[in-house]
Amino acid sequence: MDTNMNRNQPGMGRTSGRIVPLDKLDDYEISKGDPDPRGWDVKAANGNKVGEVDKLLVDVDAKQVRYLDVDLDDSDQHTLIPIGRARLDDDNDEVLLDSQPSKGLGALPPYDHGPVTRDYERQVLNSWVPETQWAGRQDQEFYNHACFDTNRFYGRRRA
After folding, report:
1. Is a pLDDT exceeding 80 seen at residue 101?
2. How far apart are CA 109 and CA 125, in angstroms?
C-alpha cells in the first residue's frame, strides 16, 4: 500500500468525518517501517524548538496523514501543520519546519481537537500559502498540493 498507514480490520472502529486523529481509528496503524513522529520535538527554521507532535490526523478515505497536531511550547495552544510543510530530520527524531507562516506559529488557527471541517482546513492553508494556489479545489483534488506531500515529509526516513 502506497500510504503511511495500514488498515487492520476493515469496517471496525471507523469514526465519522474525513480527517480524524489516528488514535481514534482502531483499524488504522502506521505502516511497518515508517517512523511515528508522535512525541517528537518540532523545530522552526531557525532551529528553535516550537512544540511537540501530539497526534497525526488522517484522511480516512485516502488513508493518508494530512496534518500534524502540534502542541506549541509556551502556550496552551495546539495547531495543525499540513504534513508537507514539515519534514523529518534524517539524523534525529525531530520534525523540522523549513518555513513558517509569516505571522508566526502562534497566529495559526488553534486546534481544539474537534471535527476538522473544510472551512477550518482552508483557514490553516491560508496561513501557509496564498489562497490562489489552492482555491476552488474540491474533494481529493483539495489535497493535490505541496502542503500535503508525504514524500517530502518522510524523505529518506520512509522504508
Report:
1. no
2. 10
